[in-house]
Amino acid sequence: MDRAKKGEISLLYLDASHFVMGCDFLGYLYGRVRRFVKTFSGRRRYNVLGALDFISKKVTTITNDSYITACEVCELFKKIAKAYAGRTVFVVLDNAKYQKCTVTGELAEQLGINLVFIPPYSPNLNLIERFWKFVKDRLRPRYYNQSELFREQIDSIINRSDNLNKEITDRLIGEKVQLFDDLIAVNENSFMRNQEAT
Fold first, then answer.
1. Is the pLDDT of residue 164 over 90?
2. Residues 140-161 as b or e (16 or more Cβ within 10 Å = b)
3. 12, burial (CB in 10 Å: exposed 0-12, middle 13-18, buried 19+)
4. Residue 128 pLDDT > 90
5. How far is it, in rounded angstroms, from Cα 56 to Cα 39?
């Protein structure tokens, strides 16, 4: 982060988000009064693979309505290489199989993109997760009766990450990352703070 702020490198956080029209919004209906909310019948998917720039907050994306695979990751790497030509690029991403495979690794190396894989079960280290939550929160209050409108709204929110929504994105994507440096293993699945062990 410090090197990115100094302009020495470009730091991006990469992950996919899967938006499902008509089913993501039902969890907000709890209460004493029974309410019926109009929603779309069926489940239409819109997958967005994005890379968020830590400094500018611009999100580079690849989208589809089927699945995110290594092909989409490679396509996004090519977009990143073109957009950041001549820069040293570090991409932080998780260990999803379609991201951590031979094909994507070889292409990243060929394009000069440095991949930084976060430890398993550590979504707190991939800051784009905060941005995806923000996008989903913006979608919730509205009913979408056409998949085109649903997609347009998602794209619109994402495309404003570095201009109209930049103030919000700056607050979401800051330097405060929850780390667990002082934890020690109790067993294979449990940890405790180092101070508690003494």
1. no
2. eeeebeebeebbebbeebbebb
3. buried
4. yes
5. 35
Joined together, the tokens standing for residue 157 give: 């929110």
CATH number of domain containing 72: 3.30.420.10
CA 29 from centroid of its chain's CA atoms: 26
pLDDT digits (tens, 9 = 90+) for 53-63: 999 999 999 99
- How many helices (H) and strands (E) are present in the chain, helices listed first? 7, 7
Q: What span, in angstroms and rounded, lies between the C-alpha atoms of 95 and 125? A: 12
**CB-based contact 141:37 (threshold 8 Å):** no
Domains held by the chain: number: 1
Query: What confidence tier does 198 reach under pLDDT thresholds 50, 70, 90?
Result: very low
Question: Could you tell me the residue range of the domain that residue 12 belongs to?
Answer: 2-197
The tokens of 117 are what? Answer: 């894989």
Distance CA 137, CA 175 (A): 22
From CA 61, how far away is CA 72, in angstroms rounded?
A: 10
How many Å from the N-terminal Cα to the C-terminal Cα in the chain?
Answer: 33
